[in-house]
Amino acid sequence: MEWSTLGRPRNPFRGGTHPRNSRLILLSLCLLLVVVAGSLVFAGYAWAKKNITLVVDGKEIALETRVNTVGDLLKTRGIQLDPRDRVEPDLAAPVTEGMRVVVKRAVPVTVTADGKTLKLLTAASTVREALQETKILPGKEDIVAPGPEEEVRSGMAIRVIRVRQVPKEIVVSVPYSIRREADPNLLRGQVKVVQAGRQGKEKQRWVLVYHDGREVKRVMEASQVVTPPVDRVVRVGTLQQVSRGGRDIRFNRVIDVVATAYTYSGNNTASGVPPHHGVVAVDPRVIPLGTRLYVEGYGYATALDVGSSIRGNRIDLFMESAAEARRWGVRRVNVYVLE
Where is the G5 domain (predicted)? Predict the structure, then answer.
């Protein structure tokens, strides 16, 4: 006999998942994936944004950017570069947070050295860097103007002065001194040389300094006297009184002169006095007009006239006649300037 179990029909989903629950789970997983992907995209977007500082021609700009390289940054900013412009860091460098990008434009300068002047476009920061670009190397003693560490400016004129020092030895004369000795036996105003002076010799070592081939100064490093000089010794008269014609004559000084003679010409003297014996024509630069004199061989006289040919230690004595003037002729005499 066959038996059968009576009861509720068997559930086909027992031990599994209802289809409706599966769909919910799948939907939840999809939403989770979307949220995670969105978060990753947002995080990547935020991570790609960088704050940097861009400096162009000395002007600073604070920027937010998402570009990858310095070259991309300059392109997005519309900054065009000349081949001689300088960018730091270089164009291929990756852009990073806090980076400072500096664009230095090339400026025109001139460089003068060795007799030549070069025109140059340079983005060098200093004069030293600009010279390095031109392959002009200053020597240790050379002068660079402006100084090597000066900042390069547009239109700057840079000059390299070549400095050369040349040693030189020379022999020069050493002047002698004049030693004066009072002599009471000589008339005041007279001098007598008792020892001739002689120059000495001195060896000197100099350094001659040249700037671009032109001597600008010389410096004496050492000197040595080879032959000492010999003093010139002169005796100076102090005697102020002489006796002439039985009379003592006191005077301030005596002058050795060349004396000629003249006579009446129809004109008064330069001082307005009619000519007469005792009138002397003089050079006022040597003997002032009005000076009282005693002329050896002539006697007492006064400087009252001048003459076109009377210059220096010359005088012209007035004579009463042409015959006396001829007899006097030309003589060298002492003239005493009276007190």
Answer: 160-240
Cα distance between residue 245 and residue 152, in whole Å: 93
Q: Please give the domain boundaries of the chain with CATH numbers for all domains.
A: 50-104 (3.10.20.90), 107-161 (3.10.20.30), 165-179+198-234 (2.20.230.10), 240-338 (2.40.40.10)
* 72 membership: H or E segment, kind and range: helix 70-76
pTM above 0.85? no
Is 30 strand, coil or helix? helix
What would the pLDDT profile of 223-267 be if each residue is shown by its tens digit? 999 999 999 999 999 998 888 878 888 999 999 999 999 999 888
- Residue 255 to residue 230: CA distance in whole angstroms: 28
* Cis status, amide bond into 94, omega within 30 of 0: no
Rounded-to-integer distance, Cα 45 and Cα 325, Å: 130
